Amino acid sequence: MVKNRLIPVLLLKDGYLVRSENFSIHQILGNPVHEVERFNHWNVDELIYLDISEDDVYYGQRNDTRVKSAMDILTVLEEVSKTCFMPLTVGGRIRSIQDIRERLKRGADKVAINTAAFEMPELIQEAALIYGSQCIVISIDVRRNAEGKYEVYYDHGRKATGETPVECIQRMEKLGAGEILLHMIDRDGTAEGYDLELIKLVSESTSLPVIALGGVGSFKDYAKGVIEGRASAVAAANIFHFMELTDRRGKKAMKQAGVNVR
């Protein structure tokens, strides 16, 4: 039986590790490379790095001066892969086969694609043919629209696609995607728990593994994402930064609820 996975998500913005809330508030937490050393000692199954920077040239704030940062995503990936002993997925700023190639060459096992999947869907098909579907993760950002219905957004959650999550994911599956990272924008950084209705709706509509992300506030949320939401894997960002022994306590809670974890 395939075991359910527990996955930390690290968000990078302008070369810094950040905390996110509703895709609009970002709090700097520190150096993105040092974190992987901590996760290597923890019992996590995979690691996801998402670069949410807006510009091609990264900038950081030092002494009230805007200076260029040396820590672009490729530099971070090169450093992280030296000591990362778990499967590594990297996403953000992927627009071409060359971008995918560069990330895989630097140690990524999979790539997560968001904006390009909507602006140039042919990239998904081409990438799956070259590298295999198992390498291609589609990052799907969802929120309730003005009518209160689930809708998929891209470009940092700013552009509406007009598609429901089910329509979008079934289309991506046909293009050759191998996995879905499902992120509920309205729950991002709120600690209110996963949107279980959304996760179940998506999980039951596709044969692809679904990674649930967005809203974890307690270790009990993980088991709910699997048992009630039917997700293949559960992921979180903020809780891994602000609570001790997050992996062990999280997996303990999942096992106690009957979830099949490593």
TrEMBL record:
It catalyses: 5-[(5-phospho-1-deoxy-D-ribulos-1-ylimino)methylamino]-1-(5-phospho-beta-D-ribosyl)imidazole-4-carboxamide + L-glutamine = D-erythro-1-(imidazol-4-yl)glycerol 3-phosphate + 5-amino-1-(5-phospho-beta-D-ribosyl)imidazole-4-carboxamide + L-glutamate + H(+). Gene3D superfamilies: Aldolase class I. CDD domains: HisF. It comes from the Bacteria. GO terms for molecular function: lyase activity. It holds the Pfam family His_biosynth. Keywords: Amino-acid biosynthesis, Histidine biosynthesis, Lyase. Its EC number is 4.3.2.10. Pathway: Amino-acid biosynthesis; L-histidine biosynthesis; L-histidine from 5-phospho-alpha-D-ribose 1-diphosphate: step 5/9. Heterodimer of HisH and HisF. PANTHER family: IMIDAZOLE GLYCEROL PHOSPHATE SYNTHASE HISHF, IMIDAZOLE GLYCEROL PHOSPHATE SYNTHASE SUBUNIT HISF/H IGP SYNTHASE SUBUNIT HISF/H. IGPS catalyzes the conversion of PRFAR and glutamine to IGP, AICAR and glutamate. The HisF subunit catalyzes the cyclization activity that produces IGP and AICAR from PRFAR using the ammonia provided by the HisH subunit. Belongs to the HisA/HisF family. This is Imidazole glycerol phosphate synthase subunit HisF. It comes from Paenibacillus agricola. The lineage of its organism: Bacteria, Bacillati, Bacillota, Bacilli, Bacillales.
